[in-house]
Amino acid sequence: MGKLSTRDGNALVAELNEHESGLRVNRKTQAIYGATELIQLSLRALDQLAGFEAKKPGRKLVIWISPGWPLLSGARQELSPKNQETYFNSIVSFSDRLRRARMTLYSIDPLGTKDAGKMRASYYEGYVKGVKNVDQVHIADLGLQVLAVQTGGRAVHADSDIAGEITNCIADADAFYVLSFDGLPGDGPNEYHSIEIKVDKPGLTARTRTGYYAQP
Q1: What is the separation of C-alpha 170 from the centre of its chain, rounded to a whole number of angstroms?
Q2: Which of 102, 105, 129, 201 is spaced 20 to 30 Å from 149 by Cα?
Q3: Nearest CA-CA partner of 206 in 195, 215, 197
Q4: Packing angle between helix 81-100 and helix 31-53, nearest 10 degrees?
């Protein structure tokens, strides 16, 4: 039987002390190479977490406290066709792994009001609809905030009450429905299908995964 969640600070500290941890040092000082390494480390950590959680039954809420990975610079970076294909395969892989793990991801920006009004805080919104084709790929499609919204979670920023935002995210676990359907096979590999759920009561909004990639 797995360990239950808790808000007991002493219990949390005791749990952390059972595992070796520490700050990871990024030794590459040049901006583009350092950013690339940070992206790879972040995505690798998320991939490992999804693989670990996929072995457990039930829905999982993952709250990631970070201003985001170094992807959303505001300047569109041109990618070679080979890199576009590599990123597209990564996008499909993350979408599938997070879906199978039943993970809903929440991104909380710890900078809070310091980030309010800045382009980086809202730049991700242009990429949450999903990527249908390889030639549409941009590096920002793998942003933390983008992945969070696509799993049915939220990207929270411009609020310095981190504890309050964590509580709001956890509250999403209090009431939810599980809807399932048999999707049709895709006409080709990695065919994107968007998902939208509408509620017929005013003032209510349903959040769910924004889409999935079907296979032949």
Answers
A1: 16
A2: 201
A3: 197
A4: 30
Length in residues, the chain = 216
Q: pLDDT tens digits for 97-153?
A: 999 999 999 999 888 766 655 666 678 888 999 999 999 998 889 999 999 999 999
CB atoms near residue 41 (< 10 Å): 13
Mean pLDDT of the chain: 83
Contact 179, 209 (CB under 8 A): no
Cα–Cα distance between 20 and 40 in angstroms, integer? 21
- Give the CA angle between residues 65, 68, 71 to the nearest 5°: 165
Which pair of structure tokens corresponds to residue 147? Answer: 């992945």
- 153: its two tokens: 């979670």
